[in-house]
Amino acid sequence: MSRATAVRAVLALVVLAVSGWLIATRTPRLGLDLRGGTQIVLETRDGEFARATTATTDEALEVLRRRVDELGVAEPTLARSGDRRIIVELPGVTDPAEAVRVIGRTAQLTFHPVLGVEAGEGREGDLVLAAESGERLRLGPAALSGQQVESATAAVDQFTGWQVGLDFRGTGGEAWRELTADAACAAPGDPARRVAIVLDREVISSPQVNEDVACDTGIAGGRTQITGDFTENEAKDLALLIRAGGLPVPVEVIEQRTVGPSLGAAAIEASATAAILGMVATILFIVAVYRIAGGIAAIALVCYGLISYAALLAIGATLTLPGLAGFVLAIGMALDANVLVFERAREEYAARGARRSLRTALRGGFTNAWSAIVDSNITTLLSAGLLFFLASGPVRGFGITLTIGVLVSMFTALVLTRALATPLVGARWLNRRPAWSGLAGIGWVRERLESRDPDLMGRRRLWLAVSAVAVVLAVAGIGIRGLNLGVEFTGGRLVEYAATAPLSADAARDAVASTGLDRAVVNTSGDGNISVRAGAFGQETEARVRAALAHAGGGDIQRLRDEKIGPTLGEELRRNALIALGVALAAQLVYLAVRFRLRWGAATVLAMLHDVLLVVGVFAWLGRPVDGVFLAAVLTVIGYSVNDSVVTFDRIRELVRAKDRRGTPFPSLVNTGSLQTVPRTVNTGLGAVFILTALAVLGGDSLVDFALALLVGIVVGTYSSVFLAAPLAIVFESRPGGLAAEP
User: Fold this and answer.
1) Alpha carbon distance 531, 517 (integer Å)
2) Which pLDDT tens digit goes with each residue over 277-312?
3) Which residue among 19, 104, 162, 332 has its CA within the 20 to 30 Å range from the CA of 492?
């Protein structure tokens, strides 16, 4: 065994050992759909500066969403109920009281000059508040507010203890300098030399400006610290509140309860069965195609699943059913790097003739596949990173999961698979029987392509016309049928019932589904109440729901609450997601322009937009719901589409640079490169299709739309990489200065 192989083996063992330890010692955080959680109902009240209206309630909801994100609660559900209520559902919260205390604070932060110390209540019209020392301070008008704070961080100082560091934004730095410049003109010890920092009309700190700060000069730099007798938790909570922003109006907790999972045990079990069967089918397929090499890839896939799951446990990610389905799908798509290596190894073995050996072929496979693996994964990482930093809520969570999947996929393919395969292909018994390895033959797909050698790019105008017609049909579907937006985007109706007889969650869901509300979110709470949340439905349907619950064994069903609810994916979250996606696509285009050519990058992005439009159009024509699960599927399709096109263009770039191909027309090179990558595309796509088919057929209503969207996305993504992106590259390169332009 070589030194490099030994290093890879040791590294793989260490990673697997750490992953095993994490799985054995960490408990997964399950989402609302799998385990339930805490439901908090807040009601906005008229405040000092604003009245509680629908608009201020929506603004408060977005602030609360940021606070929940800062608390580290992943995959929460927040929705406006009626005009002044906000429903917050938090999965896996271990201390609901602490969550209520933090998210319910108004958090109006202001900075005031201190005018003096009052023995009594002060003059009429003055703001007099008790300081942390017990003094009553008379304060001037606020000089700046928390809206001018860029960031807040809790840190410990060895002399002053826990404190909160602030960085100001915009005019905040200059306002702070002017405030401290005026205070510095008072004599040391004079109350007027102090600055009061007020949170929700409570002075949390009133430090004196240091004596080394000159009058009319102040503290420049746009930074300061809030010091006080803070504990660690108090400092971190204060920093969290400042970062998330202040509520426009006060909120009051009017209800808090524990709710059960929104999915029944039967649905969860069916989905788990589907995932297992899909995985088994994928493993059998890869072993059938690549034999012993496929068996090694199957072992690497199992290890990929263990390492990825351990990574999710390590960061405390909340696992939901769609998230777990996406995780299983990622295992299938993680085949891609292994398939790329094995296909290049097959080419290497066939090209060496009498000098061929399995060890040399495998080494060449890793070398030749390296650039395609790196380029395709870096474009995905760019997208995932920007989704994490720029988006919020479930879109940000998707970015985290995608990043973990990509990194672990590269590790298992380039380190683990190579550590397992290298000693094996060097064995004498396998070199005497090279067909057993799975690397000695070119494969059924490549045999058919080489025997027929179709000129796909010669018909590029036909393929472009087919794609144009498909886009027109998709846009027509969106325009004519419209999108069946789910309750996450449009809001709907929330009805809560009290049952005189206990009714199980599964029985309640079946009863509600029988009335036509098969997409409704049905929860049962600890007090036996049943809540039904769905898109807008009329009084007749509501009456049928009550009757169905009674017929299912709920006894006398009384309606306790009936309110309109707003979307759980609010306007700010949707806007941030679109901005993040736009920036991610621009970053991918720049990367592709640097690594390939700008014209090829433009072709890749246009093919991706084609794929997304077709998926959305299919859902429009079928009338399927477009909800949060669909959003996750579309983001996955984007990653798959770009990845597929990058692999194709990587092969085309290799042919363009090859010395023995000089003088070959660019369309011919594109045709050859596209045909050479078809076996990889087919095998990778089939690996994912097995899992998706199992999820669509056996996974139940909760996953059928997720699986359908991805099945459509993989089919059109596979098509577009060869029949749209490649022809577009030829068209773009036919212009002056292009590779296909006439000399």
Assistant:
1) 13
2) 888 888 898 999 899 999 999 999 889 889 988 998
3) 104
pLDDT at 555 over 80: yes
What are residue 626's DSSP bridge partners? 485
568 and 488 Cβ atoms separated by less than 8 Å = yes
Tell me whether strands 492-499 and 484-485 are parallel, antiparallel or unpaired.
unpaired
The span from the CA of 76 to the CA of 317, in Å, is 12
Backbone angles phi, psi at 647, to 5 degrees: -60, -40
Contact 493, 538 (CB under 8 A): no
- On whether the CB atoms of residues 271 and 700 are closer than 8 A, the answer is yes
Please choose, from the candidates 371, 631, 691, 700, the residue with its C-alpha nearest in 3D space to the C-alpha of residue 483. Answer: 631
Exposed, middle or buried by CB within 10 Å (0-12, 13-18, 19+), for 145? middle
Helix (H) or strand (E) segment spanning residue 557: strand 557-565
Q: 698 near 279, Cβ under 8 Å? A: no
Q: Extract the tokens encoding 299.
A: 């072992």
**Angstrom distance (rounded) from CA 360 to CA 347:** 11
* Whether pLDDT at 252 is above 50: yes
Question: 645 and 338 in contact (C-beta within 8 Å)?
Answer: no
- What pLDDT digit, counting tens, does each position of 436-457 carry? 888 888 777 777 877 788 999 9
Distance CA 65, CA 79 (A): 10
**In the predicted model, is pLDDT for residue 652 greater than 70?**
yes
- Single-letter amino acid, residue 298: A
CA atoms within 13 A on the CB side of 421: 33
In angstroms, the CA 314 to CA 324 distance is 16
Sheet holding 530-534, edge to edge: 251-259, 37-44, 85-91, 77-81, 557-565, 492-499, 530-534, 521-524
Count CA within 13 A, CB hemisphere, residue 742.
0
Contact 155, 165 (CB under 8 A): yes
CB 342 within 8 A of CB 418: no
Considering only CA atoms, give the Rg of the chain: 31
pLDDT over threshold 90, residue 152: no
CB 555 within 8 A of CB 499: yes
As a whole number of angstroms, the distance between CA 247 and CA 188 comes to: 36
Measured at the CA of 314, the angle between CA 312 and CA 319, to 5 degrees, comes to 35
Query: Around 695, how many Cα atoms within 13 Å sit in the side-chain half-sphere?
Result: 28
Does the model's pTM come out above 0.90? no
Collect all residues with Cβ–Cβ distance below 8 Å to 523 and sequence separation of at least 6: 36, 39, 259, 260, 261, 262, 505, 530, 531, 533
In this prediction, residues 46-51 reach a mean pLDDT of 71
Max intra-chain CA distance, the chain: 102
Output the CA angle 252-258-262, nearest 5 degrees: 115
Q: Are strands 318-319 and 29-30 parallel, antiparallel or unpaired?
A: parallel
Please name every residue paired with 738 in a beta bridge, in sequence order, or none if there are none.
Answer: none
Mean pLDDT, to the nearest integer, of 189-216? 84
**Alpha-carbon 83 to chain mean position:** 30
| Amino acid (1-letter code) at residue 248 | P
Give the single-character DSSP code of 26.
P
Query: Phi-psi category of 393—alpha, beta or left, where left has phi over 0 and alpha has psi -120 to 50?
Result: left
- Comparing C-alpha atoms, which of 581, 538, 33, 78 is closest to residue 319? 33
